[in-house]
Amino acid sequence: WTSINEIQVNEYVVERSLDNDEYDKIAQIAAHNQYELARYNYVDEDAYVSDCYYRLKIVDQDGSFNYSNIQYVAGKSNNQTNDIKIFPNPVHQNFVYVEIPQKGYYQYKIYNISGALITEGVFENSTEKQLIKMGSLENGVYMVLVQDDSGYSMFHRLVKQ
User: Fold this and answer.
1) What is the model's pTM?
2) What are the CB-based long-range contacts (under 8 Å, 24+) for 33-39?
């Protein structure tokens, strides 16, 4: 997520819910406290197989807080994004294939293990194998987020060796 003019913000608390009613704290991230654009990322390594809802609790320095909009992420078996395959894994070459089950618009983003966005792109109207170039990425663990045009998302863990 991004923020601007966050001078009074103390921290961001990432919260997750299975029912969009009761939320649990899963991460606490200190604010940068700057006027210019600040970028944050968090990868939920313990994401559930079922649907999840996420929100940010934005805590100011005086202890007051507000909530962000809620973001929904579909769990396994609810969506076509779950049938997406990324291979080979681990990656030994300079590319990976992405196999898409249905025609449509898909956006992908690759994050490093610290949650920083490394690269992004789109696939449109093809059920063929798509190619993501990995040559410029260092060896390590990455999270690949694939999101379809309806907003459903799925994370894939990817290791480059």
Assistant:
1) 0.54
2) 33/6, 33/7, 33/9, 34/6, 34/7, 35/4, 35/5, 35/7, 36/4, 37/2, 37/3, 37/4, 38/2, 38/3, 38/4, 38/6, 39/1, 39/2, 39/116, 39/117
